[in-house]
Amino acid sequence: MNIVLVCQARTGSSRLPGKVLLPVAGKPLLVRFLERIRRAKLPTHIVVATTTNPEDNIIVDLCTSANVDVFRGHATDLLDRHVKVARTYGAHVVVKVPTDCPLIDPAVIDKVILAHLVASGVDYTSNLHPPSWPDGNDVEVMDVAALERAWFEANKDFEREHTTPWLWNANSNIRCQNVEREDGRRLAATHRWTIDYPEDYMFVRAVYACLITKNALFTCDDILELVEERPEIAAMNAHLAGRSWHDAVESELKVVYR
Fold this sequence. Notes:
Elements: E1 3-8, E2 23-24, E3 27-28, H1 29-37, E4 45-51, H2 57-65, E5 69-73, H3 78-89, E6 93-96, H4 106-118, E7 124-126, E8 140-143, H5 144-153, H6 157-161, H7 165-168, E9 176-178, H8 198-211, H9 220-229, H10 231-234
Parallel strand pairs: 1-4, 1-6, 4-5, 7-9
Antiparallel strand pairs: 2-3, 6-8, 7-8
């Protein structure tokens, strides 16, 4: 079973340009992200999928220095980029974890992948429908055959840009399952750990500053404990909690969680 973990990254973010290069505890955010996903225990082949744009040469250089494979593809068609990574590396299963999740818990990655591997007759598994972990612990796992079907049939811009909507947006031909927190808490709407705005960067930088010196392997629970003890850190981007790319295309989605 060849499991390929694809991490899309580019420097051309419209809201926070170059966010994957911003310094976090002395290293670029992309490098910190790679450190965390490499701590997942299940064996995966990690590939950073970037664009063919010249400004993303620096991403290639960073990944080369970190000894991580890089694939270069379409700038806006992320579905095409993921499929071509899968083909290039002979994937049976593709895992999608975006690089704007620099605080992702490696244990969450393992949990969602394992749920997919042990399930019978499931095409797509995620922890996003509905989400229960803090926003920024996004993991999607899909059989390559299902991903190929999406590549062939998805024809809306948002389905191509965001890779997986054709799979999970109430498609009766795709068998989906969701992995939720065992404690039943729904934290995605109140805890924003992804990075898309300057305030998100302030939050991520503060979390690293507080936790990395104490425990380089800090977990989701460690961050939850920190923001409870230090509410001023949580307040840095609290006004952005719940924002998502879903907002711009909500009228076209059959599955929307609030």
